[in-house]
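Hi C.,

You asked whether I'd gotten around to modeling the 128-residue construct. I have! Everything is below, sequence then structure, no commentary in between.
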Amino acid sequence: YREISCVCVCILWFRCVRRCKSAREGIHLGRCSYRRSAVQAVEAVVAHDFALVLMDVMMPELNGLEATREIRRNATCRQPPIVAVTANAFDVDRQECLDAGMDDVITKPLQRRQLVGVLNKFLKTSFA
């Protein structure tokens, strides 16, 4: 394993991360916080200092786009990079995510290379 230590990563799309944390993927994220709803996600991001948020676009109660807008409107919390995780791969969907305040977009089903790319880009890691 290559472990990211001393980094809090708020992962909102828990199934993909559980899969990518497995031994066969070769990645272990040091500390993760899992939230099942966007409402819980907004509360967690406001309350804690996360290095990265993977935000599922389609979540119960509040979608990931609106959750991102709420986080971006909150001037009191650190503004971590927010990466959309979505099954919609069209340019218009990507642009909608970026317009909501997300920093990048990755598509489902999540592939190891996508997660590694996001970690390297936003956390300044060097996973291969």
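If it helps when you're writing up: The two ends are 12 Å apart (CA to CA).

Thanks,
B.
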